[in-house]
Amino acid sequence: QAKELDMQVHYNALTAAVNDPVACDVVISRPSFRGYGMMIATVGLPPGAEVDRGLLEDLINDGKSGVDSYEVEPDHVTFYVWPRAADVRFRFVFRPRYAMKARAAQSLLYDYYNPDERVVLEPATFVVGQ
After folding, report:
1. What is the tens place of the pLDDT at every residue in 4-61?
2. SS3 40
3. Could you give the C-alpha distances from 68 to 40, 60, 62, 127, 129, in angstroms and in order?
4. Inter-CA distances, 16 with 27, 95, 125, Å
5. Beta-ladder partners of 28
6. What is the spatial order of strands in the sheet that 88-96 belongs to?
7. Average pLDDT over the chain, rounded to an integer
């Protein structure tokens, strides 16, 4: 567990119907604000999740979020985050496309220049019905 980094990931629902929107709130901080440079955050998704890329673009374009860019992968979204004095807080939305009971990929945060300084979160389990 990292001493200089902290990350919280909260899904507003772990039980949903196919195509129901699920919001994911992310809080990233560098409590002592020691270190500098980009942090990389990956937020786990359940299998087959469709991420709302429009909201991600809005997050990048507002210039206030602390998120510089992102990449959507099949099992997670990677966010490139610049540290700030305040916490970096953002939300994105995805929709599960298949009925399932499955664990999401794990979420993690690490310092780009010091990848051994990392926070790893337990994967959430999603139940998606028809």
Report:
1. 789 999 999 999 999 999 999 999 988 766 556 789 999 999 999 999 999 999 999 8
2. strand
3. 10, 6, 10, 32, 35
4. 23, 9, 12
5. 7, 88
6. 6-11, 22-29, 88-96, 49-51
7. 90
